[in-house]
Specification:
By secondary structure, this protein is α+β, with helices and mostly antiparallel strands. 26% of the residues lie in helices and 30% in strands. The protein contains nine helices and 21 strands. The strands form three sheets. Strands 6, 7, 10, 11, 12, 13, 14, 15, 16 and 17 form a ten-stranded antiparallel beta sheet that branches. It has a nine-stranded antiparallel beta sheet with strand order 4-5-1-3-2-19-20-18-21. A hairpin with a 4-residue loop joins strand 19 and strand 20 (446-456). Helix 3 (139-159) runs antiparallel to helix 5 (285-293).
């Protein structure tokens, strides 16, 4: 019965691919990957560049631990209705980075996978908190997040044979609800810290039965009970938008023996190495990458951002490597990427890098006869950056969303107007940091986006006087009004559905994770 369902699904995927290719006969996707020191305004400067630079239509941006990544795609248009398809022989060399103002920029092209189903009528979205009270990232956190991401990706690929749609760490935890003696009349909602050491993920449900949901939920609940993590599921009840969560398990703060003693190093990390893996979106690619990293006990994952843009998978990981300073890591990495024989494939490049760093792997387990889903992926690594602790309690999250008609300026128009509004309303245009941003083309002519900004809490002082609204709500209302005014003044057509809120669930109903 299972094989029959798979066969029917494959036919449906093939039909969808044929429709997509007939509608827009594209065989390649151009993209850019920027690894840089996370600083205020970096994304604004990047997308506001001159008109000759690549347009960031579909975009993913993430910043944590002092390091940031910006990924942008631009679908290549066929020449004269046709375009040659380049066949990969598996020996593509690693990309040499272009250094630009301290950042490493990689520009490349890859083939999409039009059979990959990103849109799904049903999704399984979860949030797992590893150590929400942490004020700095330690070595044991990297091991815990690495192992957790592997469990999540394994559940998607092996348990229910479904795509892992999105991955994010750190993430904001659900809103804190307080009452006095459980009296609902005294209910008060408090915004949680802007970011916490937690992993947020979404899995597409091909099998929408209740049994499939329970199977996934039980697996993650047992995992959290074992290791001492808290676990929430997205609230799927009617009227509950994305950003509403239902608590499944609340941890008591005791971690499992796996992350105690020698393995649970309390020493904070010293270096972050950003690595981005890119290739045709397919089931199991994230699991293959993280499973390989598990063979190296000294390598942890202290941040991640993964999604699919233009049917291309982008898996970004921040690696921490115990006992290796940023200067030494960059020297070895620069020499490695400068060699014409260095492969671009994830396992091959990382294996060579770790070998030169003197990191021995654990004995390799039998992999079986299954093919590696990342065998044709490209790897973009570096530069290594010194770890910079994030002062989470000093910032509040401001969520924004928008819709824009596909145009030449792309992301530049709404983002530039937003920063101007921040400077006008809260004098925070130069202080706000984009911690997470996603733009996705949902139709041929429409691009929709959502972002989480970290804004200093000090700006709330000017919104405390009078009224029953909380200062955060006043700030967001004023910012939304100023943002709309800036867009009107800019003269840019096609920007609409602007929303600002201190709670994600109060954004537009169509926004994406």
């Amino acid at each position: 019965m299972r094989s029959q369902r798979v066969s029917v699904r494959n036919v449906a995927d093939l039909a969808r691919a044929g429709f997509e290719i007939a509608r827009q006969p594209v065989t390649k996707v151009d993209f850019e990957v920027h690894h840089a020191l996370a600083r205020h305004g970096y994304l604004r400067d990047l997308v506001s560049a001159d008109a000759d630079s690549a347009v960031f239509l579909e975009t993913l941006c993430s910043a944590t631990n002092g390091a940031g990544v910006v990924i942008g795609t631009r679908t290549r248009k066929p020449l004269d209705g046709t375009e040659a398809i380049e066949h990969s022989d598996g020996r593509q060399p690693a990309e040499r980075p272009e250094e630009n103002a301290g950042s490493w920029v990689f520009r490349q092209t890859t083939s999409p996978n039009p059979t990959f189903i990103y849109e799904s009528a049903q999704t399984f979205e979860g949030l797992i908190a590893v150590d929400p009270g942490a004020r700095e990232v330690c070595e044991w956190h990297g091991l815990a997040v690495r192992d957790l991401v592997r469990e999540i990706s394994d559940a998607a690929s092996a348990l229910i044979d479904a795509p892992l749609l999105s991955l994010q760490c750190p993430a904001q935890l659900p809103t804190i609800v307080k009452t006095r003696n459980h009296d609902l009349r005294t209910r008060k909602e408090v915004a949680p810290p802007c970011s916490s050491l937690a992993v947020r993920f979404a899995i597409a449900l091909r099998d929408v039965s209740a049994a499939a949901r329970f199977e996934l939920a039980d697996r993650f609940r047992e995992l959290c009970e074992k290791h001492g993590y808290s676990f929430w599921l997205a609230d799927t009840r009617p009227g509950h938008r994305q950003g509403n969560w239902f608590e499944v398990y609340h941890a008591d703060g005791e971690f499992s023996p796996l992350y105690k003693g020698d393995l649970r190093s309390r020493q904070r990390i010293g270096t972050c190495l950003p690595v981005t893996f890119v290739g045709p979106a397919r089931i199991g690619s994230t699991h293959a990458i993280v499973s390989f990293l598990q063979r190296y006990p000294q390598v942890g994952v202290v941040g991640c951002a993964g999604t699919t843009l233009s049917d291309v998978a982008f898996v970004h990981l921040q690696l921490s490597i115990q006992g290796v300073a940023a200067d030494r890591l960059n020297r070895i990495l620069t020499k490695l990427l400068g060699e014409s024989t260095t492969p671009a494939r994830p396992h091959k490049l990382l294996r060579e890098l770790f070998k030169r760093l003197g990191l021995p792997p654990d004995p390799e387990e039998a992999s079986g006869s299954s093919a590696d889903p990342t065998a044709d992926y490209q790897t973009f690594a570096g530069p290594a950056l010194p770890y910079r602790p994030y002062q989470m309690p000093e910032s509040m999250a401001v969520w924004v969303s928008w819709e824009i008609a596909r145009q030449h300026r792309g992301l530049a128009a709404p983002l530039e107007c937003l920063y101007r509004a921040l400077a006008q309303v809260a004098s925070a245009g130069d202080l706000a940091t984009v911690e997470y941003l996603i733009c996705r083309a949902t139709e041929q002519s429409v691009v929709r986006g959502k972002a989480k900004l970290a804004v200093p809490k000090s700006v709330l002082k000017q919104f405390t006087a009078g009224g029953v609204e909380v200062p955060a709500a006043k700030l967001c209302a004023s910012l939304e009004e100023a943002w709309k005014a800036q867009v009107d003044r800019s003269g840019v057509d096609g920007v609409s559905e602007l929303t600002v809120a201190w709670r994600e669930s109060w954004l537009g109903h169509w926004t994406y994770s």
